[in-house]
Amino acid sequence: MSDFQKDPVALMCDIGELVGLFDFESGLDSFLKRAVSMVAWHMRAAVCSIYLYEAKTQDLVLRANQGLNPALVGRLRFALGEGLVGTSLKTLKPICEANGRDNPNYKFVPDSGEEAFVSYLAVPITRKMNPVGVIVVQDPQYNYFTANDIQALRVIASQLAGVVENAHLLLALRKNQDAVSTSADGPGGKLETDGPEALLLATGTHCIPGIWAAGGMAMGLSTRIGHYLERTALNDPAPEGLTEADFDRAAALTERQLLELQRRLQDKIQDAASMIFGAHVLMLKDDAFAGEIRLKIRAGKNPWDAVMEEIRHYADLFEHSPNSLMREKVLDVEDLGHRLLHNLNPAAAEADMPDYTGQIVIAESLLPSDILKLSAEGAAGLILLGTGQHSHVAILAKALDLPLVVCGDRRLLAVPEKTPVLLDAKGGQIVIRPGEEAIQTMRELLRNLATTEQLARRSKPETRTLDGTRVTLMANLNLVSELDLAMSAKVEGIGLYRTEFPFIIRNAFPTEEEQYVGYKSVLERMAGKPVVFRTLDIGGDKALSYFPTPHESNPFLGLRALRFSLRNPEIFKQQLRALLRAAHVSERAKIMFPLVASLDEYWTAKEITLACYRDLRAEGIPCRLPEIGVMIEIPATAMLAADFAKAADFLSIGTNDLIQYLLAVDRTNSAVSSFFSPHHPAVLRTLARIAEAVKPTGKALSLCGNLGSDVQMLPFLLGIGLRTISIDSASIPAVQEAIGRINIDEAEWQAREMLTFTRISEVEAYLEDLRKS
Ligand code: PEP
Ligand code: MG
Question: Residue 9: its pLDDT value, please?
């Protein structure tokens, strides 16, 4: 047996180092060669081979090897499903054999020298569920590889997949360069800086109404992203006297800044383990990019113009690429241009980072990964012009505590750079060039905003009503970075971890291994407290930019949440395996299915979970089958609450969706927001019926929608018998204090009264009377 034992952190560091070895100049094969020797050393294995999948021939080709006959590299091929290598990729499963020859799919390769090696371990390399290749380790000792080795090789495979994909993208790009048309206007079209519209906001104070999407308040200087190049071209002539040495200095400084940003991002948002700034660094190191700039400088071009030309060229190539992943990289290219040009100015000091620190960013729309970058770069606030007002972008901004206002006034695009802007996100106000008085008021308000220290001071570890009844307050979690806030609020656990957010903010599917590491770290940080992991709730207003789905005219009634998972079993199984493995770390981990509409769906999902559990056991991977729960978010599920309570281990009411579906009101449509009424008698009666139906079964019931932080409604919720509520961490102190003023007998009586009302107005009048009394 292998004595290879490493703690996961050291392992991740080593793998990070391995990925850092990639440098486009020396090519993919040279990287793979270094990778196999590092992996062989890392796994203490005599042989390591990497096969890459060729889509054209559907073959796996040996691209790098250590320990076998080197003449086979580039020549040895396996078809999909052929031999252990082909089988591993076809089934997308690792193959671990005490003796590889015992496996019926084993295929001996003459003249390879592999007769000396008995133990065999192959792990598929996949990216976004697409085949990339297979990594194999072999050793002369019988039964040498352990469950730990399988896990280690999975981590390595997931990291390799990213590098191979990036390399392929750049290669494909170069091949297609000539075929791509160029646009005279450059990327993004012309900036609307002239005309009467722009002049309206060019001077004086303006107050522009918008819609709150996230966060509180912010103040800063305006900047518009995505059009730096046009701005520079129009306004800034190239500085004189720049040399190739200035470009080299600027490139080195830019790389250091990017790596520092990546580090800051990882400190802030552990979920974003993938390299958000990876594409920037890769381009910067790519000889076809930097080398071309140097050639132009040597031919007499001013370095400023050389950078400008090359960035325009790449932005254009990306923008016109048929590959949607590449089109999304236009902002990355422009961002890289922004940094390089800034750093080319000899006056730019090291400390002077060309980032968005303290700025109010104005943009037409943004991707989730842009929100991450802006947060890492310290942007003070965001103004989006409508197209970006998808609630997942808003929830992400909320999770990052980044004030965000959505506003359709296109004049904002012409606000001159570095104009003072005050953002009262909660009040939905954008003030351009605010007066001194407004600035003072804002400063005052900013001082009073909830901080982790204030949360820690105001919250208690236990919540009780006035008469001493225990209520459990848990936190809703969207990103791991919110855990600090949850801990400061002394929550008793995580009642809802929306696991889709780590998927949404990335550019590609996290692998099973990456998910496992993320889930495990949440459990470890919660140190024995319960954590409810909700499986993916993709669909509705939460799309994955990297996973194309057909257009739906009613996405909230479409392929969403559990339906999406059941329709994409490979994605579902990968998440379940990661969750079952993480559950091994804590007895208090739980799994919950979102938007379950029928018991049939629940049993199908549970069967898949059990099958994943059996597979993991058979593979010898440590795992645990935790409690499995159901979200009640659909009227049909509410009707069958008693039956669901018998079938599942626990239930949680998702009032955001339950209200949306009960009242037929789109929760993201601000035009109908006044109809989204938690005070509707049908909502009250549905909640009461659920509580009543679940009670005799003795199963745990909680509530995890926004209604839980509606202080006015707390007496009703406790009055119908709810005792566990999961809410945003920032709301904990206010909810805890309100619960401390409730007497359960009174609350039960009030709830009974409220259930007699037939009109929303009666419920609201009653709540108003209670507030005044
Ligand atoms: C809900 O619907 O109430 C809920 C908690 O889930 P989400 O807001 O993520 O849809
Ligand atoms: Mg929901």
Answer: 46
| Assigned token pair, 729 | 């961490």
Catalytic residue among 280, 342, 392, 679: 392
Q: Is the pTM of this model over 0.85?
A: no
User: Of all helices (H) and strands (E), which one includes residue 165?
Assistant: helix 147-176
Q: In whole angstroms, how far apart are CA 175 and each of 47, 133, 169, 291, 475?
A: 34, 22, 10, 17, 50
Q: How many CB atoms lie within 10 A of CB 371?
A: 26
User: Is residue 22 within 8 Å of residue 167, measured between CB atoms?
Assistant: yes
- Closest ligand 1 atom, CA of 496? 5
**Closest atom of ligand 1 to CA, residue 633:** 2
Q: Does residue 680 line the site of ligand 1, with CB under 6 A? A: no
Q: For residue 450, give the nearest of 730, 188, 646 by alpha carbon.
A: 730
**Pairwise CA distance, residues 602 & 124, whole Å:** 30
The stretches in the chain having pLDDT less than 50 are: 1-4, 6-9, 173, 176-199, 231, 233-234, 273-274, 349-351, 387-391
Residue among 474, 479, 498, 728 whose CB has most ligand 1 atoms within 8 A, to mutate: 498
Q: How far apart are CA 550 and CA 536, in angstroms?
A: 18
Active site residue 704: yes
Q: How many CA atoms lie within 13 A of 561 on its CB side?
A: 20
CB of 514 closer than 6 angstroms to any ligand 1 atom: no
- Beta strand spans in 720-773 (E): 724-727
Residue owning tokens 């100015």: 345
Token pair for residue 199?
């002049």
Find the Cα–Cα–Cα–Cα dihedral 607, 608, 612, 618, rounded to 10°: 50
Amino acid (1-letter code) at residue 458: R
- d(CA 496, ligand 1 centre) in Å: 9
Ligand nearest to the CA of 705: 1
φ, ψ (nearest 5 deg) of residue 495: -85, -20
Rounded to the nearest 5°, which phi and psi values hold at 112? -90, -25
